[in-house]
Specification:
Blueprint lengths: L1 H20 L9 H20 L5 H26 L4 H24 L3 H25 L5 H24 L4
GO cellular component, one term: plasma membrane
Pfam families: AmiS_UreI (PF02293)
Keywords: Cell membrane, Membrane, Transmembrane, Transmembrane helix, Transport
């Protein structure tokens, strides 16, 4: 259930951030959802890493989830501070490079449709965070593409599966 809880808010933040990248909303308006999502995912990270049932698998999940939690907190910081985002861009490369082998290993180990879907999510996230690297660190003109990919990833890797999970349908 915690995965659905986090994915639901990941979907929300990616959709809103995608709309911002597409120039549909002002950058000041994304701060709240980025902080909320960082807090929600951060609470789950703390539970998974340090909770009473923490084990190797939950700590692995916490480690990987913290990559995204950090991203959302950093986006909010950049909007509040006026930072240019290059540091976040380089961090995004770190996330992309980490997510790629996570995806490969997840595809290798997948035993059912849900696990295959999660492996595909990791691959999508690797591509998305690589786009952020190109846009923020290298200043490639891919903001529009990143906006659409962010929005679609929000719906299909976050909101929809998260919603189905919290409803007990997935």
């Amino acid at each position: 259930m915690l995965t659905g809880f986090v994915l639901f808010y990941v979907g929300a933040v990616l959709v809103i951030n995608g709309l911002w990248l597409l120039d549909r909303i002002d950058g000041r308006e994304i701060v709240v959802i980025n902080i909320v999502t960082a807090l929600v995912s951060g609470a789950v990270v703390l539970h998974d890493a340090f909770g009473p049932r923490a084990d190797a698998e939950s700590i692995r999940n916490a480690t990987l989830s913290l990559l995204f939690c950090t991203t959302y907190l950093w986006v909010a910081w950049n909007r509040l501070s006026g930072a240019d985002g290059r540091g976040l861009g380089w961090f995004s490369l770190f996330v992309a490079v980490t997510a790629l082998p996570v995806s490969v290993l997840a595809f290798r180990d997948a035993l059912n449709t849900g696990e295959t879907w999660m492996a595909a999510n990791w691959l999508a996230w690797a591509g998305l965070w690589f786009l952020y690297f190109l846009m923020l660190a290298l200043r490639f003109p891919v903001t529009r593409q990143a906006g659409w990919v962010t929005l679609l990833a929000g719906v299909f890797t976050g909101w929809l599966p998260g919603f189905l999970m919290i409803q007990g349908a997935l």
